[in-house]
User: What shape does this take?
Amino acid sequence: MAVLPKPPPPSATLQQAAAHAWHTHGAGSQAPLAVAYSGGADSTALLLAACAARPGQVVALHVNHQLQPAASQFEQHVRHCCHAWGVPLQVLAVNAQAAPGQSPEEAARDSRYLALAQAAAHAGAAQVWLGQHADDQAESLLLALTRGAGLAGLAAMPERLQRHGCTFVRPLLQWPGAALRAEVEQAGAPYVNDPTNTDTQRTRNRLRHQVLPALLQAFPQARQTLARSARHAAQAQALLSELAASDMQHVGHPPAIAALQALSPARQANVLRHWLHAHCAARASTAQLHALQHQLQACRTAGHRIDLKVGHGHVRRQGTVLRYVPLL
Assistant: This one.
């Protein structure tokens, strides 16, 4: 049997970070480890670190969104690198066209997560590692602030999450992007640059190129402090989720109108948001939630009607309870 070539080794520090992530999130598993590999510097550093932590047990997953002319070049690049390094590769072509009412970024993200989860299951992988880093985390929090997001948005990106029955892990959230590029260049590993990352017409790119550098110049520890704020928000959101789950047991499923009316406005909004998201796969905007609460408050007679469009359906009154009716 031919001996497979080895990928270039990253620094001992990055190897330790990968080993810690595997020990924390995958300890005891003998299953392969999947890495989302775009070919950029961040995912290249992650792939090298994963191969050092789990030699011979790593599979690379490349998602081709087919949304830009350079997509085929990225695919050729990752094929070349994985072949040169002896890393098994799965290329996943996805249709990332946005549905009505869905942003292109959301459509691409949703299709990417689903494709990665399905590929990981096919490979028998224990989890999928994602290459987002400290700068990405800071940008996510700043972006959430500009959009007036609630705690769920301010929590930014968790280190570990479950989606489509798959465990996703972000081992590099403590690493600045520049440090990862330095790692890849020191290892002599090639990487590609996504030309869309310089398009400042996109909000995230404006934050990346115009806002975050100025913020770091004024406050050099901003990455760490923003990350700490995101962790505080995540902890608070976890408490709200626990409270909503407890209140759901009281109001019932579907929720009883009288039980909802007995809650304080804040708890009522919290449980309604939880019900819609967890049980109906719908997200209500702040305006929609306020409108629903206003209709609930006014619902004092047997014939009072409640009907509000939320997501791809309607929240309606049926007797003494609320129902979510998807659009046909």
User: Anything to note?
Assistant: The longest helix spans residues 222-251. DSSP finds twelve helices and nine strands in the chain. The chain has a mean pLDDT of 91. The CA atoms of residues 266 and 272 lie 10 Å apart.
